[in-house]
Amino acid sequence: MRIKVLSHVAGAAAAAVLLGLLPALAAAQQSVEAVWAPREVTFVYQGFTTHYSCGGLREKIREMLLRLGARDLRVREQGCIRAGGVEPFPGVRVRMQVLVPAASQHGNTAGPAIRAHWQHVVLMPSNASLREEGNCELIEQFKETFLPLFTTGDIRYQSNCIPHQLTLGTRLSVKVLMPEAKPVRGR
């Protein structure tokens, strides 16, 4: 009888240990070997509702790219004709490096492979303020121009953006590859 009780206790303890390890095992399965790859793009904002100075657009784009994990980021103003004022068509030229799965690259990378994981990033939250909602045209254009430069998944986008009107309802979130702390050995 005592052996049966001990085996049940041992089985329960083993099950508890396995249940405790499940989150770590799931995270390890989502871990990906990745490399940094260069990306370059020129972007000209064309909006009717919200207008930006070149410096304002540069900072908005920089902020979103950093949130997506870009490194060695250079965002430069382009096509600006007004000193510090709102531009009709402000532009930026962007150079950066983004993580891509190592298996998808055959050269054209910047350095050794590293471990990366999928991370959920919200660029326009569901509880955005009315002021933030004014960026709906920029969010739409950012999604079309910049997201394809990253390794992404589970893009969730919704927009009720109407030109010349401040409307609620624009949302954008995405899963993107982000670096983990330790580099991969042997590459």
Secondary-structure topology with pairs:
Elements: H1 2-30, E1 32-44, H2 54-67, E2 71-78, E3 91-101, E4 114-124, H3 130-133, H4 136-145, E5 152-158, E6 171-183
Antiparallel strand pairs: 1-3, 1-4, 2-3, 4-6, 5-6
Characterization of the model:
- A six-stranded antiparallel β-sheet has the order 2-3-1-4-6-5.
- The chain is built from four helices and six strands, in the order αβαβββααββ.
- It has helices at about 1-30, 55-65, 130-135, 135-145, and strands at about 30-45, 70-80, 90-100, 115-125, 150-160, 170-185.
- The protein has about 190 residues and is of the alpha+beta class.
- It starts with a helix and ends with a strand.
- Residues about 5-30 have low confidence and may be disordered.
- The chain has one domain (about 35-185).
Gist?
With 187 residues, this protein is α+β, with helices and mostly antiparallel strands. The chain has helices at residues 2-30, 54-67, 130-133, 136-145; strands at 32-44, 71-78, 91-101, 114-124, 152-158, 171-183. The chain has a six-stranded antiparallel beta sheet.
